[in-house]
């Protein structure tokens, strides 16, 4: 794969590199000895390098140690060997085929080899048993902080639109297996816009107050009485006649004080009018089942194992 | 080289082979001083890793855990500044010493000098004195020559291996390391570093010697910038020594007439024979001179024998030599601006270093706001924000801390407000902070989150954070 449209730059780099290296070698070789022709009769002078300027300005020879020169040659040989083995000469990939991506893959593989057995061990165990294991919980917490805390918060208590995972209220059911299925496959939360089905804006407000009354929150008694028939007609199909919700459909329980989007009349009216869509992504392909297993056990444990939820 | 009648071509070699220097053994004041330095530094170097402190190695640089233990102090990566300060202090100490007394560090305490001294001592024990060594090297191969050479290298190797082992012992617990060496159970990197450091010791002190000082040492290259004419250097007193000449012979030749004209140097070349870098100090200060004062000891010995006063070669300064200054003059001139400035900087850094080390809080905390969950409205109209406190207990004992918050009316913690950390533990603790609705403006509000140790007053940190109220 070439990053250039023509081979010119490739050749340019190769030639410059090689000329540079070989030039260094040549310079070193040509300068390590120096011949001087002495005028006849003069005494041999090895004290100077034989360089002469301005008629009589000569340079004293204080030679460098020879091992120094050899080191220089060795670095030249080393650089050539390096360029044969590793990428460096233009597009030439090197005999070893080393790639930074390959190095990354190798590290991944190493991590897999190091931690794989640990995750495999937990995968064999029942989710409740994993949730009771302190070490597994510590691993789970780290996974959670890395992959889940962005949406559900570091304390797993969620925020607007993101469910609280540290209470015992579940949209799709709180059994360990269900939690695992949720993480594996993700969820699509869908509440359709109901404005048309409910009726006028007045009706929407009445239904909202009825919903508030279901959970025992402060509500207008008259509005809520007026809203009840509308609720039975338009909402009960999913949320149930008494508003207890339906975990098969992911329809929230409206008779408690846990709200996904907020429990004020305004927010509920907005929900009825416009509906809500919500997505929990699937982690199966990304994390793999073994890690999800530990993660699910941790999340389930948050609301079911004493001391597991963050203080 | 050819005759001098025909035109000729001479070849000048720009790189010279190393010539073996057979340094003669020397005794005297400075030689003893050097041996004291050898003993002190080596007892320290070889002994330190074996000392224990609070159930762990007293001095351990744990690179894997990124923690440096130095007796009661545990340094974390965040304390890197102390390491930098230590290096700066060492550098200024060196500058100061060099400005006052030239290459004293080189001649007496530098590891290169110290190990060369040890290796030369071994060499003398096995191959004999200077002349014996020269003879041995000229000899054709023989069983005896082989035995001596082999013995020398084996002994060198043993010292080098022990040095390499000790060196690695500063980075991995040395007791475990010793067990692993005995059972040959060393890891590949431990093998590598033990052998690498051993090889470096063997090569430098056995083979490279003065080459290190002359061509490899960076410090040798720039310390001339700390020298001036009042720096103490090893000098040959030319006025007193010249003209040099062998005494006894000339005295015989002309009945003492020549002797009267001669200076104190009897041209015995002892000063050259003892010099580890193979120079003749009588030619003046040269960059090769490492200031080891071996020539001072040697010449003093000679002067004692011929009955002349000591100090033909001695510590003196360029100014003193040229202007005939007295010892008191030299001492007075030692306190010149250059020295005073080095001294002032050194003192300032040492004081700052000591103070900040003493006032260091062995507790650190980073506050990370949850970005995804900006702020949530919860029951009764309260607003809640979530933070991750990255808490580091950098002391070695467990501590119980209270989390304290302030900055907004009604700001308080939801959940437990105490957290316990074991010694040198790092933990990420999620905390939830709440305010009653309407107690703060919408958007970001500045607050503070602090930790206060319950079992030790003064052990506390306080960090700024942001409380977000949704719009
Ligand atoms: S000249 Fe003297 S002080 Fe300098 S290196 Fe040689 S022996 Fe040591
Ligand atoms: S040791 Fe002293 S007397 Fe002998 S040559 Fe050197 S300077 Fe002269």
Polypeptide structure, described:
The complex is a heterodimer of chains A (311) and B (471). Chain A is built from 14 helices and six strands. In chain A, 24% of the residues are buried. Chain A starts with 7 loop residues before the first helix and ends in a 7-residue tail after the last helix. With 311 residues, chain A is mainly alpha-helical. In chain A, the strands form two sheets. Chain A has a two-stranded antiparallel ribbon with strand order 2-3. By secondary structure, chain B is of the alpha+beta class. Chain B is 45% helix and 21% strand. Chain B contains 18 helices and 18 strands. Chain B has helices spanning 29-47, 80-101, 104-109, 111-127, 130-138, 143-168, 174-182, 188-208, 210-216, 218-222, 238-241, 247-254, 257-261, 270-274, 294-306, 318-323, 327-334, 337-358, and strands at residues 8-13, 15-16, 52-53, 56-57, 59-62, 67-70, 73-75, 233-236, 313-316, 363-369, 376-377, 383-393, 399-406, 412-414, 418-421, 426-435, 443-453, 460-469. In chain B, the strands form five sheets. In chain B, strands 10, 11, 12, 14 and 16 form a five-stranded antiparallel beta sheet that branches. In chain B, strands 15-13-17-18 form a four-stranded antiparallel beta sheet, with no helix packed on it. In chain B, strands 5-6-7 form a three-stranded antiparallel beta sheet, with no helix packed on it. In chain B, a hairpin with a 5-residue loop joins strand 11 and strand 12 (383-393). In chain B, helix 1 crosses helix 4 (111-127).
């Amino acid at each position: 794969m070439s990053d250039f449209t023509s081979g010119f730059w490739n050749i340019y780099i190769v030639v410059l590199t090689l000329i540079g290296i070989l030039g260094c070698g040549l310079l070193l070789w040509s300068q390590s000895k120096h011949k001087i022709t002495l005028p006849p009769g003069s005494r041999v002078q090895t004290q100077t390098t034989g360089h002469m300027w301005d008629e009589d300005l000569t340079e004293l020879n204080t030679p460098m140690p020879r091992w120094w020169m050899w080191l220089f040659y060795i670095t030249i040989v080393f650089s050539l060997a390096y360029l044969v083995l590793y990428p460096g000469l233009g597009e030439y990939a090197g005999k070893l085929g080393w790639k930074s991506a390959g190095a990354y893959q190798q590290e991944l593989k190493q991590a897999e080899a190091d931690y794989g057995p640990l995750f495999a061990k937990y995968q064999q165990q029942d989710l409740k048993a994993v949730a009771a294991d302190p070490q597994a919980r510590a691993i789970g917490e780290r996974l959670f902080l890395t992959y889940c805390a962005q949406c559900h918060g570091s304390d797993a208590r969620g925020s607007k639109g993101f469910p609280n995972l540290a209470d015992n209220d579940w949209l799709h059911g709180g059994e360990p297996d269900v939690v695992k299925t949720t993480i594996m496959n993700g969820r699509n939360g869908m509440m359709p816009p109901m404005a048309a089905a409910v009726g006028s804006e007045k009706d929407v407000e009445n239904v909202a107050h009825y919903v508030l009354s279901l959970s025992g929150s402060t509500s207008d008694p008259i509005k809520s009485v007026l809203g009840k028939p509308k609720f039975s007609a338009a909402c009960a199909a999913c949320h149930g006649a008494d508003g207890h919700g339906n975990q098969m459909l992911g329809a929230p329980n409206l008779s408690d004080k846990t709200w996904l989007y907020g429990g004020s009349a305004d927010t509920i009216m907005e929900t009825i009018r416009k509906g809500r869509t919500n997505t929990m992504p699937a982690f199966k392909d990304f994390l793999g089942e073994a890690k999800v297993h530990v993660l699910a056990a941790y999340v389930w444990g948050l609301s079911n194992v004493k001391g597991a939820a963050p203080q | 080289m050819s005759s001098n009648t025909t035109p000729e071509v001479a070849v000048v070699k720009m790189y010279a082979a190393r010539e073996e220097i057979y340094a003669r053994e020397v005794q005297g004041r400075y030689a003893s001083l050097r041996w004291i330095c050898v003993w002190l530094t080596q007892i320290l170097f070889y002994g330190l890793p074996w000392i224990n402190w609070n159930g762990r190695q007293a001095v351990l640089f744990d690179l894997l855990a990124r923690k440096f233990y130095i007796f009661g102090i545990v340094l974390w990566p965040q304390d890197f500044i102390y390491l930098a300060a230590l290096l700066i202090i060492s550098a200024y100490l060196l500058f100061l010493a060099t400005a006052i007394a030239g290459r004293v560090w080189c001649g007496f305490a530098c590891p290169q000098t110290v190990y060369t001294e040890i290796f030369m001592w071994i060499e003398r024990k096995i191959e004999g004195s200077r002349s014996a060594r020269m003879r041995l090297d000229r000899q054709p191969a023989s069983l005896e020559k082989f035995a001596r050479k082999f013995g020398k290298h084996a002994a060198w190797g043993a010292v080098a291996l022990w040095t390499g082992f000790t060196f690695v012992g500063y980075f991995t617990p040395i007791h475990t390391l010793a067990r692993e060496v005995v059972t040959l159970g060393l890891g590949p990197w431990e093998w590598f570093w033990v052998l690498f450091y051993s090889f470096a010791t063997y090569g430098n002190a056995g083979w490279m010697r003065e080459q290190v000082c002359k061509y490899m040492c960076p410090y040798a290259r720039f310390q001339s910038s700390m020298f001036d004419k009042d720096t103490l250097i090893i000098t040959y007193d030319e006025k007193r020594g010249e003209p040099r000449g062998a005494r006894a012979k000339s005295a015989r030749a002309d009945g003492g007439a020549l002797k009267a004209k001669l200076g104190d140097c009897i041209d015995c070349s002892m000063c050259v024979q003892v010099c580890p870098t193979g120079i003749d100090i009588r030619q003046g200060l040269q960059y090769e001179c490492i200031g080891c004062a071996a020539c001072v000891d040697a010449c003093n010995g000679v002067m004692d024998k011929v009955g002349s006063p000591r100090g033909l070669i001695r510590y003196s300064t360029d100014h003193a030599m040229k202007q005939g200054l007295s010892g008191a003059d030299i001492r007075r001139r030692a306190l010149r601006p250059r020295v005073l400035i080095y001294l002032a900087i050194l003192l300032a850094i040492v004081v700052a270093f000591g103070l900040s080390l003493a006032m260091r809080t062995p507790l650190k905390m980073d506050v990370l706001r949850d970005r995804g969950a900006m702020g949530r409205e919860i029951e009764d109209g309260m607003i809640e924000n979530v933070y991750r406190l990255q808490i580091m207990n950098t002391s070695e004992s467990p501590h119980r801390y209270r989390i304290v918050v302030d900055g907004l009316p009604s700001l308080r913690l939801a959940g437990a407000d105490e957290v316990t950390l074991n010694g040198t533990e790092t933990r990420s603790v999620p905390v939830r902070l709440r305010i009653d609705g309407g107690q703060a403006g919408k958007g970001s509000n500045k607050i503070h989150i602090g930790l206060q140790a319950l079992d030790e007053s003064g052990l506390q940190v306080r960090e700024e954070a942001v409380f977000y109220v949704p719009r």
